Automatic annotation (TrEMBL):
Pfam families assigned to the protein according to its UniProt record, in alphabetical order: ACAS_N (PF16177), AMP-binding (PF00501), AMP-binding_C (PF13193)
Binding site for CoA: R189, G190, G191, K192, T307, S519
Modification type N6-acetyllysine: residues: K605
Start and end residues of each AMP-binding enzyme C-terminal domain: 527-605
UniProt protein name: Acetyl-coenzyme A synthetase
UniProt source species: Kineobactrum sediminis
CDD domains according to UniProt: ACS (cd05966)
Primary role: Catalyzes the conversion of acetate into acetyl-CoA (AcCoA), an essential intermediate at the junction of anabolic and catabolic pathways. AcsA undergoes a two-step reaction. In the first half reaction, AcsA combines acetate with ATP to form acetyl-adenylate (AcAMP) intermediate. In the second half reaction, it can then transfer the acetyl group from AcAMP to the sulfhydryl group of CoA, forming the product AcCoA.
């Protein structure tokens, strides 16, 4: 645990929405009177077309949860229409382009019109309630319109991160049987262009059911065009009406599918539903960020990840907030870009990932000091553990020791923040995700599955249902039950380890399964291994993570070539390229070590524990290797290990 000093709640947060007293009282109520608490929140935060009859039902031990049964509402109505009487002219989205000269303010009434028009286009193409729509977009306002247009007509969106490869797009389109795709000709990121439509074209050669591909014109470059299927967004949206009636949805109707990696197999389509998801997105946004009317909120995530779904789009808009969406990257044109944007748009809250903080820290204070950052009131961190050194720099240099940092722990599966400090309630400990959010009942389990009392370390689990809980893995409910609800019966298993200190603060220590966190991007070792062994010269591969100064974790691959194949630099390059084409650039290995053999037990199971130690360069104590079929392979791997920078 950290030696760093505690930062008490600053006096200027004394009038926050939640203070220490109200946190304790509300948290207690949320556990003791769960139904009453969430009913009150659902009334306060959302507009319902029809009230629910049952707050929550279902058997948590089987992963079953139904929230607000009987209730009806529409997410796009809640994020747009209901704000119109009071804030039609207020900005909903601020878009900042990759090029610092490009930006746009989109008001709630403009948002309404654009979402309605797109929703009408989709309806005219036969898309309706329950249909799946794949969105593969750059960070442009149309990505937000696309998600909200789906929500408006009851279609289920499946956003695929714009950095994923054609193969990854195909897999996701087929898994959910998406028949409509919304994309752009090209994306712009860090001064480079990303060939989105070309990637989609490649992907769609294997997706015969896709009848419609809507294309936003961003760069205007020439594209291959399949008549009948491909449609220009700017043409189609002008030909339809500017009003579109929202579909009446059940609270439990699906809102979206989002693919995420697990420790085995292919990425799984995490499914979230309408009422519970939106409620928890809205509630956490207001309380965690102590959001005030008129403030500008900036979450730097991509809409392709859950953070973008919940905290660029749904949480802010459900609160009638002003949300900033940035097309580019923090280091373009230079490392001062974020702080320039903060000054330019008078950003009040800045929410980013530790990997970005570490990368900016590494280039020093000068690019930060060029800006004033006077508008900043609060900072946030998400996606991976933040090391206390990075935390302190973020606090001292970026926030001028004035802005609390909320280090928020959650997952694609939880839909919204689960553990976080609240700026008006929680004294900050650098590196600690701190305290459970309202309604979140946590426990730490030991190896045997017994709950640890008081201070200690163990597996982080959740003891009871919460509204934005994962409902299923699309098309494979059994996999959901096995992944999250079978390890420890009666508990939701997060896959993370954590410690709880004497003050009850939670410190996330990282994944305890074969899931990597590379620059805040989640990836399964199994996915990378599958990509590597597609190469005809490769017999076997085992992938582990190792600590990386900037990325948090790096990808270390032990690769066994086929008999008679001589390892070479060109083979290495082919393997790196293969990971990029199979998954995406984020999956490129950092280290490939040639391994004539892998450490296996007599039953053939690879002992990853040993590989992790070698990758971490901790070879002094490899533990018991006597159960290996051939202990001598370890000597070879140790002797030839690569020392990553
Ligand atoms: C995994 C979930 C949360 C949305 C973005 C990532 C890690 C997330 C923290 C944090 C330590 C964190 C966990 C978790 N993680 N936030 N504040 N401190 N670790 O969502 O891709 O579903 O990944 O990210 O390991 O299990 P995701």
């Amino acid at each position: 645990m950290s030696e760093f000093p505690i930062h008490p709640v600053p006096p200027h947060f004394a009038d926050a929405h939640i203070n220490a007293k109200t946190y304790a009282a509300l948290y207690q109520r949320s556990i003791d009177d769960r139904d009453g608490f969430w009913a009150d929140m659902a009334t306060e935060f959302l507009s319902w077309d029809q009230p629910w009859h049952t707050v929550v039902e279902g058997d948590f031990s089987k992963g079953e949860a139904r929230w607000f049964g009987g209730g009806k509402l529409n997410v796009s109505y809640n994020c747009i229409d209901r704000h119109l009487p009071e804030r039609a002219g207020q900005t909903a989205l601020i878009w900042e382009g990759d090029n610092p000269a490009d930006s746009e303010h989109i008001s709630y009434s403009q948002l309404h019109e654009r979402v309605c028009r797109l929703a009408n286009v989709l309806r005219a193409r036969g898309v309706g309630k329950g249909d799946r729509v794949c969105i593969y977009m750059p960070m442009i306002p149309e990505a937000a319109y696309a998600m909200l247009a789906c929500a408006r007509i009851g279609a289920i969106h499946s956003v695929v991160f714009g950095g994923f490869s054609p193969t990854a797009i195909t897999d996701r389109i087929l898994d959910a049987d998406c028949r409509t795709v919304i994309t752009a000709d090209e994306g712009r990121r860090g001064g480079k262009v990303v060939p989105l439509k070309t990637n989609v074209d490649t992907a769609l050669t294997s997706c015969p059911n896709v009848h419609t591909c809507l294309v936003v014109r961003v760069t205007g470059s020439t594209q291959a065009w399949q008549e009948g299927r491909d449609i220009w967004y700017h043409e189609a949206t002008t030909e339809v009406a500017r009003e579109c009636s929202p579909e009446l949805m059940d609270a439990e109707d699906p809102l979206f599918i989002l693919y995420t990696s697990g420790s085995t197999g292919k990425p799984k389509g995490v499914l979230h539903t309408t009422g519970g998801y939106l409620l928890q997105a809205a509630m956490t946004f207001k309380y965690t960020f102590d959001y005030r009317e008129g403030e500008v909120f900036w979450c730097t995530a991509d809409v392709g990840w859950v953070t973008g779904h919940t905290y660029i789009l749904y949480g802010p808009l459900a609160n009638g907030a002003i949300s900033l969406m940035f097309e580019g990257v923090p280091t373009y044109p230079d490392a001062g870009r974020c702080w320039e944007i903060v000054d330019k748009h008078q950003v009040n809250t800045f929410y980013t990932a530790p990997t970005a903080i570490r990368a900016l820290h590494a280039v020093g204070d000068a690019p930060v000091k060029r800006s004033s950052r006077d508008s900043l009131r609060l900072l946030g961190s998400v996606g991976e553990p933040i090391n206390p050194e990075a935390w302190e720099w973020y606090y001292r240099v970026v926030g001028d020791s004035r802005c609390p940092i909320v280090d928020t722990w959650w997952q694609t599966e939880t839909g919204a923040q689960m553990i976080t400090p609240l700026p008006g309630a929680t004294d900050l400990k650098p590196g600690a995700a701190s305290m459970p959010m309202f309604g979140v009942e946590l426990a730490l389990l030991d190896e045997g599955g017994a709950e640890i009392e008081g201070a200690g370390a163990g597996y982080l689990v959740i003891k009871s249902s919460w509204p934005s809980q994962i409902r299923t893995i699309y098309g494979d409910h059994q996999r959901m039950v096995e992944t999250y609800f079978s390890h420890y019966p009666g508990y939701y298993f997060t896959g993370d380890g954590a410690t709880r200190d004497q003050d009850g603060y939670y410190w996330i220590t990282g994944r305890v399964d074969d899931v990597l966190n590379i620059s805040g991007h989640r990836m399964g070792t199994a996915e990378i291994e599958s990509a590597l062994v597609l190469h005809e010269d490769i017999a076997e591969a085992a992938v582990v993570g190792y600590p990386h100064d900037i990325k948090g974790q790096g990808i270390y691959c032990f690769v066994t070539p086929m008999d008679g194949v001589e390892p070479s630099e060109s083979l290495r390059a082919e393997l790196v390229a293969l990971c990029a084409t199979e998954i995406g650039a984020i999956a490129k290995p950092d280290v490939i070590q040639w391994a004539p053999g892998l450490p296996k037990t007599r039953s053939g199971k690879i002992m990853r524990r040993i590989l992790r130690k070698i990758a971490e360069n901790e070879v002094g104590n490899l533990g018991d290797i006597s159960t290996l079929a051939d202990p001598s392979v370890v000597d070879h791997l140790v002797a030839n290990r690569v020392h990553p920078e």
